[in-house]
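Try it yourself: sequence plus farnesyl diphosphate, in.
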Amino acid sequence: MDYLAQIDKKKTPVHVAIIMDGNGRWAKKQGHERLYGHNFGVESVREVLKASTDLGIKYLTLYAFSTENWNRPKEEVDGLMDLLVRSIANEIEELMSSDVRLLTIGDTDGLPGSCQAELKSAMTKTEKNKTINLALALNYSSRWEMTNALKQISRKVSSGEIKEAEINDQMISDHLTTKGIPDPELIIRTSGEHRLSNFLLWQAAYSEFYFCDVLWPDFKREDLFKAVLDYQSRERRFGMVSEQLT
Ligand code: FPP
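Structure, out:
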């Protein structure tokens, strides 16, 4: 089925966020170590980024490494960090020619120095690009992010910089690591798991969720189009009733 032809380009989500899951299971199915799946997962990242650009999506956020992922075997953690550095170095010219701006969300100060340096260089190089923003969630978790925001806000209240009564939704959003990035209209999780795993809990207040059984290394262009088409079939009411939506 040609999903792309059915998509209403005027109603594509501005921000799509993806929990890329299933690399390990995919590798095991092929009789390989987990890192083999992560390596193939990069190919899906490349394809989904291109498909998102074709749809006119402006922000694509990918959950690449959570604060909990440090608990994985050292070999896998080291392999993922190495893969990240290599992938960014390999893709930088493509990011430039496709006008992709690279961003990160998460506690990137906690990443190895080589990762931080590669990310910093790529973010500086791509900072003026405008077609699409690719936000990599690295050493990210919502609970870390919200705790951090709470600490920053309470410090400002204590010092008298702001009053408690001034705290509102917008102020909280502005103290999150996603500051300046619109909330995602659509969150996709692959591999048949139905949970958020500490991802964008605040930002997901009105997101639509799309779960599919496809393992991340098998998730391709058509799978993204299918998800967007499904999103377009939903009625987003934001607490109102159908009749109020014109
Ligand atoms: C989840 O699958 C996947 C990850 C924790 C890592 C995702 C990282 C990549 C696809 C590489 C990213 C690279 C760039 C450049 C963004 P899993 O290992 O939890 O799979 P499982 O549930 O089958 O074990």
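One thing you can check immediately is this: The chain has eight helices and six strands.
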